[in-house]
Amino acid sequence: MKTRKNISSETARKSFFNSESAGATIVAAVLLLSIIFTVLAVVRIEYVPMWKTDAEQSHMSEVQKDMAELKSTADMVSLFTSSDSNTSAHGFPVTVSFSMGGGEIPILEPSKSSGTLSLNTERCRMIVTPQRSSISNSTEIVDCGGVTYYSNNREYLDQIFRYENGALILSQKDRSLMRQSPSFKIERTTGDNYTVSIHTIKMAGEPDSISSNTDASLRLTGLYTEPVYDSNDSEGIDSFTCTILTQYPDAWVSYINETAKNADLEYDTDYIVDKIGSNTVYFSCLDNGNKNLERLYVSKSVIQAELGAGGSLNNGEVSDSESDEERDETKMELGKWYCFDIFTGTYKGSAMSSGNTNPEMLRDYDKSYSLPTGDYVVLSSSYTSGNYFRKNIEKKGEVLKLNFGFNNYSSINSTSYPINATVRMIYRWSGNKHATRKLTFAETSDEGLNLQKTQYWCLYNKTVSISPTSPENLTLDLEIGTGNGNGTEGEFDIDYLAVRLN
C-alpha cells in the first residue's frame, strides 16, 4: 500500500524526467538552428559571391549581344539609306532593346546589378586630310558620336561597351579591344597599288543617358548617306592622314595596324599609325613608300538616335498644337548655344585658305570637363582639346584677323529681340610675351585684354549687350596682335567658339 509520502516522491521523479526531456528538445532545436545558420553563412560568404560573379558575367555576355545587335542594325539602316533614296524621306525607324541589369540569384541574392546607356556623351571625331602636291589640301571632318553601355556590377569586373563610327569596342580598366570592326578597309588592287575606303557613321541626337536595372531601348532612323571625298573626282592623290579623336585609342590603333598589314603594307615605310596622348589616333599613308595609294574614298551615313525606357518610344510625331516656327530649324532660339557656320580670316593682308578656317573645328570641347564660372579663367591641365584652329604669328607687329558669322539661320524665333548674348571661347596663346586682343560681337567691342602666355587652355565667357534684328547682325570679329618688341611671336589656338542669345 502506497503512502502519501511515496506518491509525492514518485511524482517528483516524473516531473524531473519531464523537465529533462523538454530541455533536451530546446537544446536540440538551438543546435539545429545554429547548424542551419552556419551553413547559410558559409554559403553566403563562400559561394554566393562566386555564383554572383558567374551570373553577372553571363549578363555581360547578354549586353555584348545587345550591342552587337545595335551594330548590325546600324549597318542595315546605313545600307538602306545608301541604296534607297526614298528611305530617308519616309524614315525607317528600328528599335534595339538592351538588358540593363542582371546577375540576380533567387532567394539568396535577388538584387540586380544595373547599367547606364548613354548617347553622344563621349566625343568621337574623324578628320581626314587628303594630300597631293599639285593642289591645296582640304580637310574632311565627321563628328561620329556613339552609344556607350557602362556596367555597375557588384562582383564581376565592370566593363564598357562602346559603339562608335561603325565599330564595337570593349573596354576594361585601361585597355580597349575591337570586338567588331568598322567599315575601314585597305585593299590591294593591281601590282603595288592599294585603295582605302572609309565609311563613317554619325549618330545624330542630343546627349542623353538612362540608368536602370531592367530594360532600355534605342530607336534608330536612317536620315541619309552621302559621299564625303573621292580622289577619283579630283586630280588623284599622293597620300592622306586620318586623325581619330576617341576615348578608346588602343582598339583603333590595333585594328588599323592589323588592317594595313593584311594589305601587305609595311609599317614606317608605307604607313604609320600611333596613339598621341590619351585620346588621339594618328594614321598616315606615306607617299614615298613601296606601295602606291591609288584611291581614297570616304562616305558618311547619318542616323538619328533616340533613347527610351523599356521597349516604349514615342513615334516622334509632332502634335497639331506645335506651330511651324517651333519646328523650323532655320530660326534661332533664345537660351541655346550656337556655333558659327561662317569662318574666314586674313594674315599679313592675305586671305587664309578655307582648309585652315573650317568652322567644324570649333564645334566641340571636352564635355567631361566642368567649365568654371567667370569671364576669364585658366583651365586646369585635365582639360583635353580635340581638333582645334591654330595659327602661328611669326613676327613682331603682325595682326591676325578672324571673322565669324551665321549663314544657316533666317531669323530669331522670339516675340522680342535678345538684349544680350554670352560669348564662350576656349583659347590658348603660347607666345613668349603677352599678345593683344580685340573682340567685337554684334558691333559691341571688348578690347584691351592681354592674352597671357600659358601652356593651358583658357576660357573666355562674357555676356555683352546687343540689339540684333536678325542672325545676319550676329557677327564676331577677333584681332590678335603681337607687340613690336623682340620675342613677341607665338601661336594662337581656338578649341571652341559659340554664342548664346539671352
TrEMBL record:
Keywords assigned: Membrane, Transmembrane, Transmembrane helix
Transmembrane segments: 21-43
Family annotation (Pfam families): DUF7289
InterPro entries xrefs: DUF7289
Protein name: Uncharacterized protein
Organism ancestry: Archaea, Methanobacteriati, Methanobacteriota, Stenosarchaea group, Methanomicrobia
